[in-house]
């Protein structure tokens, strides 16, 4: 392939060169401005920023003025259709204003970049810079140690504290960094090698895009980087009058965090940006909001955030009724016994396979070997046997034979097993044998799901009376629900015992299961495996099994970052995922050349047969390199391997440091030592992102940092990150990967050709292969895994897109209610939709009586059409007539309510106005009461109309929020239940989309009806109510923020179950409005129109209540 690629480059050209070439002219322009800017005084240089901002404001002034005029008109007009047109015009003008701004930014880019570069040069060359003090200088001098005031002047120092470390500014932008800044400004990904100064590159587009004052976000992967970079680079921006803040310095929902978002440039972690968005969409007043519109974001380590973390949902969750109930601990002993029994028979199959294969009977030997593989694929004895000559080929040949014709004969292999492990797909499935074993001391159907269709048909054939038949069906559904939950618990426990290893996928800290990030090797704080898997691992490891929770708000990072008007990113390792970045985010990857040529030597992989041989060779190499005075960084893929190598080095008396998830607190100290002569550091992939190992002159002379990879990772990006620790800014260095046929990548996806070649060459123990062809073969295996992972992420995106489309509708309606601006239009649309549903439903059934009843029920008005007109007119005409009458009635009703409320408001304002700022006014629809908080002065000045607007806002928010929470619970259940569709040869995704659409449509219809019903019926109570002052009562925080970790499987990926309690906690408890009623309880119901009451069992009353003509009466 590399030969073909080189031929293509000759004819088509290199993409990187094509991307960079057009930018060289702008670099020349920037450099051409340097002399003129250098001649300016410090104050004149600062004045350039004022000129830029003035130019931007002037260019968009016409649009901004027109937008302000239209907003003023929209607030005063009462014509709903006119309002809707005005808001459509405002949206259009805002887009046009944004485009004008972008054009101006492109125009001033060379000069703006030159200003930033000149500022950096002045900070480097001057210990102090004296300028005329501005208002911002005076404000900052109170909190920033690097600004001091001297009369009318401000003195800026070039040394300051960055996240606890004293630094002196010593950087000026290189030419390649100017190119990187242009790429970021254009909304692309800038791929820059380690040590090329990505944080300095970001200062260029941050400054330029902060000029319009719309807010710019720089997103980091952890809070240390966010705090460090914001304090490190802030003086560069503040010198020019731009404000800088970091959201991670402030508590959620605080004034400090709100102020951080109002800054021109805001730093923060990806999680906190996402959680703030969710919290904003749970806010009850505009004052609670912290975020502005999503304008422009630069994502640091963009591949980590938008690829690795993209499918991880951010979740705000709360308690669910009986959430602590589960069967993990009850079923754990059974699963433990089952796994031990399978382990025994797997060892038996392996022993028999060895015997038969040595006798030359490869057919039966292969059959037993396949059984051993499908029972326990991670069995170390099996892995060792598979590395022997020709054995892997026997397994592959046998597996291919039984897998042909859609696994037609695979049942012959599986019938002796208790469960089957599909390691490549990360799935475990119980066999009939397993079900029999688990059911031996219980009913034989204890773990068998009933066939719903067959069972319903059987019940219907029994000719029972209606009540008895309904009871039997209810029992069936209850049985199905209990058993499906039980089987789900079993499956998750089996996965926990067979596929998830302690100190590899997770560690135990503070009696909690903590997930280890496979990409970085770091502890992932606040994350839990989804869908009950985390609870299963907790049960397995005998730590506290946390209670289940319910999702209140959720979004994936994938969909959060797609909301920005402009998005860009920077990293050292994006090119291997360029296809995914383009397909999902429409982000192009541009490779930026290095400032100095790369001098690191990347050697071809050393391939051994067994892990033991490989590790022995690693230790030998490390010993030699350390003696030569070179620092060595050993990269491992798990905590377990890092500890094994540490023990081996101790046996050789080689001093070394270990950096893994268990020892993450010592990270800074260990990294600081890692570049010194002869120092050996063992690290998981933690030594990847954000780690800068600096070398001493004697180390450079000895050959630089030696990178030793003990295993190829599934992803080429992780290997490139490890390699990137050496060779920074032209430093010398080497990288060498050691591979064995027992490694996970080679075992699962490694080319058969590698195994065949090693067998053909008759390699003895300890012998090694090293060739560029072999290295390329391993990279092809990595590509297979990357393609598989991309497919998984893409499929998840399809699931999440369904949720995202629904989220946008609900959050948009919520925002309109919260701000109140467009709420009148929304209410008119809800009213029209409700009219349409009533007309269509009753017209289809030709039920004029029910049509009349529903108009009374929802609109409290009689029908404006006769029965003859109802039969004769079309649905469209009827809807229009009903809508017009209902809207007129509602307009008249709100005016009447405002007139009735005004004397009360007037009395309070004139007698106690100096005491109260906001008041609470109760509204009721006859059944429920809602306390509405309103601004007393505004209510008085608008003669009660503001009070009615606040009533509309409050009721819309309350009903939308409650319905959305219930809907999210149903969506959680749907994600789990659709997986059963696989057994019916159906695509779960299609069923999910179809069912989700129906659920959402029903939710919207119910929300519309509830809101409209309350608005039409809601009024001030007849008896005089005491108007009281509205006081802010701190709400008890009763929900949690968390991230769900989805295992890398199609099945698990499709479930976004909520996680258990985590870090910050934030509002609301769900309380049942009425006591639970069982089907056999006696209830009293009342007919709405006649007033007649009857007592009967709830199961009989259910049908009557569903018509809407009868209601429950609380006795």
Report what the structure shows.
- The chain is an alpha/beta fold.
- Helices cover 55% and strands 14% of the residues.
- Strands 8-9-7-10-18-6-19 form a seven-stranded parallel sheet, sandwiched between helices.
- Helix 12 crosses helix 19 (466-498) and helix 30 packs parallel to helix 37.
- Mean pLDDT is 82; it is low at 1033-1037 and 1046-1076.
Can you lay out the helices and strands and say which pair or pack?
Blueprint: H1 2-12, H2 15-38, H3 42-76, H4 80-125, E1 128-132, H5 135-141, E2 147-150, E3 153-157, E4 159-162, E5 165-168, H6 175-185, E6 189-191, H7 198-210, E7 216-220, H8 223-238, E8 244-246, H9 255-262, E9 265-269, H10 270-280, E10 296-300, H11 302-308, E11 313-319, H12 328-358, H13 362-375, H14 380-386, H15 391-407, H16 410-414, E12 419-422, E13 427-430, H17 432-438, H18 452-461, H19 466-498, E14 506-509, E15 512-515, E16 527-529, H20 533-540, E17 549-556, H21 557-561, E18 566-571, H22 578-585, E19 589-591, E20 599-602, E21 606-608, H23 611-627, E22 632-635, H24 639-651, E23 657-659, H25 667-673, E24 680-683, H26 697-702, E25 705-709, H27 716-723, E26 732-740, H28 744-748, H29 752-760, H30 772-819, H31 823-845, H32 848-859, H33 867-872, H34 875-912, E27 918-924, E28 929-935, H35 936-941, H36 945-977, H37 988-1017, E29 1028-1029, E30 1040-1045, H38 1050-1053, E31 1082-1087, E32 1093-1097, H39 1098-1106, E33 1110-1113
Parallel strand pairs: 6-18, 6-19, 7-9, 7-10, 8-9, 10-18, 16-30, 20-26, 21-26, 22-24, 22-25, 23-24, 25-26
Antiparallel strand pairs: 1-3, 2-3, 4-5, 11-17, 11-30, 12-13, 14-15, 27-28, 27-29, 31-32, 31-33
Helix pairs in contact: 2-4, 2-6, 3-4, 4-7, 6-7, 7-8, 12-13, 12-19, 13-15, 18-19, 19-20, 30-36, 30-37, 31-32, 31-34, 31-37, 36-37
């Amino acid at each position: 392939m590399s030969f073909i690629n080189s031929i293509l480059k000759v004819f088509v050209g290199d993409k990187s060169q094509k991307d960079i070439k057009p930018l060289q002219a702008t670099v020349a322009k920037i450099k051409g401005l340097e002399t003129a800017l250098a001649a300016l005084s410090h104050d004149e240089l600062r004045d350039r920023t004022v000129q830029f901002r003035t130019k931007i404001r002037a260019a968009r002034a016409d649009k901004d003025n027109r937008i302000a005029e239209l907003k003023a008109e929209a607030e005063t007009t009462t014509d709903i259709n006119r309002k809707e047109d005005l808001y459509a015009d405002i949206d259009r003008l805002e887009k046009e204003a944004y485009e004008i701004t972008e054009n101006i930014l492109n125009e001033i880019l060379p000069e703006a970049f030159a200003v930033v570069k000149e500022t950096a040069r002045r900070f480097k060359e001057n210990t102090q810079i004296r300028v005329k003090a501005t208002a911002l200088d005076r404000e900052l001098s109170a909190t920033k140690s690097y600004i001091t005031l001297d009369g009318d002047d401000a003195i800026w120092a070039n040394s300051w504290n960055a996240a606890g470390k004293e630094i002196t500014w010593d950087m000026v932008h290189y030419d390649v960094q100017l190119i990187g800044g242009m790429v970021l400004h254009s909304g692309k990904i800038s791929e820059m090698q380690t040590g090329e100064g990505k944080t300095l590159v970001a200062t260029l587009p941050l400054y330029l895009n902060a000029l319009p004052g719309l807010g710019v976000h720089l997103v980091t992967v952890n809070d240390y980087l966010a705090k460090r970079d914001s304090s490190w680079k802030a003086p560069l921006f503040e010198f020019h009058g731009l404000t800088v803040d970091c959201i991670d310095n402030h508590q959620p929902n605080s004034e400090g965090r709100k102020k951080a978002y109002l800054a021109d440039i805001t730093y923060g972690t990806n999680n906190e940006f996402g959680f703030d968005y969710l919290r904003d969409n749970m806010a009850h007043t505009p004052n609670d909001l912290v975020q502005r519109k999503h304008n422009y974001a630069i994502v640091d380590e963009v591949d980590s955030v938008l690829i690795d973390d993209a499918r991880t949902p951010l979740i705000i969750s709360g308690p669910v009724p009986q959430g602590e109930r589960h069967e993990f601990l009850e079923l754990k002993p059974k699963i433990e016994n089952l796994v031990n029994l399978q382990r025994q028979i797997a060892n038996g199959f392996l022993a028999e396979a060895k015997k038969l294969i040595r006798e030359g009977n490869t057919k039966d030997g292969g059959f037993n070997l396949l059984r051993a593989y499908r029972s326990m694929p991670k069995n170390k004895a099996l892995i060792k046997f598979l590395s022997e000559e020709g054995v892997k080929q026997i397994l592959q040949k046998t597996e291919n034979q039984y897998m042909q014709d859609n696994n037609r004969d695979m049942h012959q292999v599986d019938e002796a097993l208790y469960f089957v492990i599909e390691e490549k797909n990360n799935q475990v499935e119980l066999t009939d044998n397993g079900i029999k074993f688990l059911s031996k001391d219980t009913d034989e159907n204890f773990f068998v799901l009933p066939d719903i269709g067959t069972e319903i048909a059987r019940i219907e054939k029994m000719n029972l009376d209606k009540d008895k038949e309904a009871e039997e069906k209810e029992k069936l559904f209850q049985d199905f629900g209990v058993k499906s939950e039980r089987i789900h618990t079993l499956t998750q426990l089996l996965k926990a015992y067979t596929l998830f290893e302690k100190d590899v996928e997770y560690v135990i800290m503070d009696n909690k299961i903590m997930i280890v990030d496979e990409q970085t090797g770091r502890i992932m704080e606040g994350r839990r495996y989804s869908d009950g898997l985390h609870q299963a691992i907790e049960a397995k490891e005998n730590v506290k099994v946390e209670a289940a929770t319910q999702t209140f708000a959720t979004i994936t990072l994938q969909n959060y970052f797609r909301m920005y008007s402009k998005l860009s990113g920077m990293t050292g390792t994006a090119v291997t995922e360029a296809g995914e970045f383009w397909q999902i985010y429409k982000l192009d990857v541009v490779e930026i050349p290095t400032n100095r040529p790369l001098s690191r030597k990347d050697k071809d992989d050393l391939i051994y047969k067994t892990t033991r041989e490989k590790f022995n060779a690693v230790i030998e190499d490390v010993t030699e390199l350390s003696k030569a005075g070179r620092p060595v960084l050993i990269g491992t893929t798990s905590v377990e391997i890092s500890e094994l190598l540490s023990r081996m080095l101790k046996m050789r008396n080689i001093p070394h440091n270990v950096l893994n998830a268990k020892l993450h607190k010592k990270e800074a100290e260990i990294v600081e030592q890692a570049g010194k002569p002869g120092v050996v550091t063992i690290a998981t992939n933690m030594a990847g992102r954000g780690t800068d190992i600096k070398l001493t002159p004697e180390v450079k002379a000895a050959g630089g940092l030696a990178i030793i990879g003990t295993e190829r990772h599934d992803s080429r990006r992780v290997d490139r990150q490890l390699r990137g620790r050496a060779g920074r800014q032209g430093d010398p260095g080497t990288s060498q990967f050691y591979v064995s046929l027992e490694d996970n990548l080679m075992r699962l996806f490694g080319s058969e050709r590698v195994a065949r070649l090693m067998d053909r060459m008759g390699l003895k123990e300890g012998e090694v292969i090293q060739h560029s062809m072999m290295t390329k073969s391993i990279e092809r295996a990595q590509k297979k895994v990357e393609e598989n992972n991309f497919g998984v992420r893409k499929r998840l995106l399809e699931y999440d897109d369904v949720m995202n489309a629904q989220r946008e509708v609900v959050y948009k309606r919520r925002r309109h209610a919260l701000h109140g601006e467009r709420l009148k239009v929304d209410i008119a649309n809800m009213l029209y939709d409700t009219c349409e549903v009533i007309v269509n439903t009753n017209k289809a059934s030709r039920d004029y009586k029910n049509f009349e009843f529903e108009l009374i029920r929802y609109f409290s008005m009689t029908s404006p059409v006769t029965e003859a007109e109802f039969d004769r007119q079309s649905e469209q005409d009827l809807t229009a007539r009903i809508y017009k009458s209902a809207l007129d009635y509602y307009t008249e009703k709100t005016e009447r309510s405002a007139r009735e409320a005004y004397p009360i408001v007037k009395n309070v304002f004139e007698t106690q106005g100096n005491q109260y700022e906001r008041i609470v006014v109760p509204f009721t629809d006859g059944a429920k009461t809602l306390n509405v908080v309103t601004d007393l002065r505004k209510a008085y000045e608008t003669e009660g109309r503001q009070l009615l607007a606040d009533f509309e806002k409050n009721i819309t928010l309350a009903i939308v929020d409650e319905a959305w929470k219930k809907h999210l619970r149903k969506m959680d259940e749907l994600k789990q239940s659709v997986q059963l569709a696989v057994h019916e040869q159906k695509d779960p995704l299609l069923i999910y989309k179809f069912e989700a659409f129906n659920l959402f449509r029903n939710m919207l219809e119910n929300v519309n009806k509830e809101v409209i019903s309350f608005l039409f019926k809601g009024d001030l109570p007849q008896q005089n109510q005491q108007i009281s002052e509205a006081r802010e009562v701190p709400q008890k925080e009763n929900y949690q923020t968390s991230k769900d970790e989805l295992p890398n499987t199609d099945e698990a990926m499709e479930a976004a179950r909520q996680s258990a309690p985590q870090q910050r906690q934030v509002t609301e408890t769900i309380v049942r409005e009425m006591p639970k009623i069982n089907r056999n309880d006696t209830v009293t119901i009342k007919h709405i129109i006649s007033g007649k009451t009857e007592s009967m069992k709830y199961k009989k009353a259910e049908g009557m209540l569903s018509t809407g003509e009868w209601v429950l009466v609380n006795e």
